Structure formats: structure tokens, C-alpha cells
Amino acid sequence: MYGNVTIGGEDKVVIQSMTNTPTKDVEKTVKQILALEKAGCEIIRVACLDIEDAKAIKQIKEKIHIPIVADIHFDYKIALEAIESGVDKLRINPRKHRWTR
Length: 101
What we know:
Helix content: 25-40%
Mean pLDDT: 92
CATH architecture: Alpha-Beta Barrel
CATH class: Alpha Beta
CATH superfamily: Aldolase class I
Distance between the termini: 38 Å
Radius of gyration: 14 Å
Shape: globular
Strand order of the largest sheet: 1-2-3-4
Structural class: alpha/beta
Order of helices and strands: EHEHEHE
Number of strands: 4
Number of helices: 3
CATH topology: TIM Barrel
Low-confidence stretches: none
């Protein structure tokens, strides 16, 4: 479950997207999410690069109508703040990757 949206198994395919705005810019992020909702998006992901991004989730959720997923890299403290802000789901990358050839 992502908020009130069920995914997987025998359930229908769900349209998901991700914003490309700084999440802490609540106005721009909400504007983009509302446009995606209008286009049929049912779940939205936002990048949480710092605590301010995670704190912005609370304000964003008040203005949108679909579940929000926090995409968090490397920092459990940001994940905890996103939870406090009411995120519907977390996506955590647990460590930095070193790409080698």
C-alpha cells in the first residue's frame, strides 16, 4: 500500500512519477504534482536530499491528493523526518555507490 493506493499482485497497474523540483520549494513542487495528478499520476515521488526537503512533505501533503513517496539517499535522519512529516512510503538508498570500470 502507498497511502490508499494498492500496488502489486492482481491489482491494476498504477501510474507513478517523480518531481524534478527542489522538494523544499513547496510551491513549485505542489504545482508540478497537481499537473501530474491532472495527467493521471496516482503516486508521486519526491527527492529528500536534506532535512528541509523532508519537513516540506507535511505542507505538500496538505495540497495534493495522491500518496507521496520520499526518495532518500544515505541518511536515516532524513527518513525519520519524512515519517514525522507524514510521508506515505519511503524509498531508501542505503549507501553511496562507487562506480568502477
